[in-house]
Amino acid sequence: GSYKTKAGTMGAVNISTASRSAAATAVPRKRRVELTDEQRQEIREAFELFDSDKNGYLDSHEVKVAMRALGFDVKKEEVMRLMDDVCVTRDQHNQPLMDIQGFTDIMTDKFATRDPRQEMIKAFQLFDEQNTGKISLRSLRRVARELGENLSDDELQAMIEEFDHDGDGEINLEEFLAIMLNDD
Question: In sequence order, what DSSP letters do the residues of 101-139 get, joined into one string?
Fold first, then answer.
C-alpha cells in the first residue's frame, strides 16, 4: 500500500514540475533578476505618474521621462528601439504605445544591468556640490536637510569621523564607496 502512495506522489510531482517547466518555456523572455517589491512599486508609480491621459499606455516621450524619473538617462533613439521591441498597440497617429507589462520588462532589464559602483559615484556627486572630490560637514548637512533628516552637527560630524580613514575631516570618493558598497 505505501509503495503505491509514494509512486502516486512522485507522479504528481513530476507532472507539476513538467507543467511548470513547460509554462516557463512559454514565457517569451527569461528574467535574469527578480525585482524587489520597492522597485516594482517605483516602476508602477512612474508608469502611472507619466501616463498623462490615464489610458494605461505610455508614448515614447512618456517612457523617456518615466525612465529618467527612475534614474535612467536614455537617448530618444534607445527609447524608440525599446518601443518597437515591446509595443503592444499604436495610437491614432500610428505611434507605438507601451503598457505596464512592457515597461516593467524594460525596467527589470535596466535594473539588472545597473552598475552599483557607477550609481554610488553619481550619489557622491550629489553630495559634492562644489566638485572638490570630498564631502564636507557643510555638504552633508545640506543633503540631510534636503532629505528631511533632522540631524545635529555633532551627529553629522560623528558620521564623517567614523568613515574618514585618511583623517582629513571629510569623506572622499574611496571612503564613500567603502561605506556604500561595504567593501572595506
Answer: HHHHHHHHHHHHT--HHHHHHHHHHHH-TT-SSEE-HHH
First to last CA, the chain: 60
Q: What is the rounded radius of gyration, in angstroms, for the C-alpha atoms of the chain?
A: 24
CA distance linking residue 112 with residue 99, whole number of Å: 20
pTM of the model: 0.57
User: In 3-state terms, what secondary structure has residue 91?
Assistant: coil
**Residue found under cell 524594460:** 106
58-92 CB burial, b ≥16 within 10 A, e <16: bbbebbbbbbeebebeeeeeebeebbeebbeeeee
CA angle 78, 79, 83 (to 5 degrees): 120
Question: pLDDT grade, residue 114 (50/70/90)?
Answer: confident
- pLDDT score recorded for residue 98: 96
